Amino acid sequence: MKNQPEILKNFIVLEGLDGSGTTTQLMLLEKMHIENKIKHWCTFEPSDSTIGKHIRDILRGRKEVEPVTLALLFAADRNEHLFNKKNGIISHLSRGEKVLCDRYLFSSLAYQSVECEFDYVLSLNKNFPLPEFLFFLDVSPEGCKKRISARAEKDIFDDPKIQEKIYEGYERSFLVYKDSDMKFYRIDGTLDFQEISRKIWSIIHPLPI
After folding, report:
1. Parallel, antiparallel, or unpaired for β 98-102 and 7-15?
2. What is the value of pTM for the model shown?
3. Would you say residue 75 lies in a domain?
4. Contact 110, 169 (CB under 8 A)
């Protein structure tokens, strides 16, 4: 991919299939940052903006839209999440904070490309900046199925066959950015949660710098 997007220093993203443990890792890493008195902001996508809340209703099956509409909504939510002057990712980074995010544009490329053309989803997201660090919690679709089976609230993407396509979408998205300056780490998501958090912490704890 030519004309690679800029890299946002001190921006860390966690990615993985549903049930891979990204939310758990965000909580564990937040605790470590608080204990070590490191300036940080933890966030997630979809965000808690009006657009993000609308997306969550769609993902939970409470509302229905066309696949392209959902891809557009994710891109709009991401734009606001990044550039909102009061509480956006870039505004937090500018204040010297480390930003940790549960999901980012790689999720869009993986999930929305199940029903939309991959290149179309990429066109919506290609101009967004990349994180300095990307951690992919690698758990097979079958492994994630066991983890999410007990969830009370289901997601429209929870079907194992869909998760297999999403996994393929992730792999394709990583290839798109393989020549960028983003630091990519694939972590065995079947390891103990505490061990995973220690691995990530060992890499990112010197930040922000």
Report:
1. parallel
2. 0.94
3. yes
4. yes
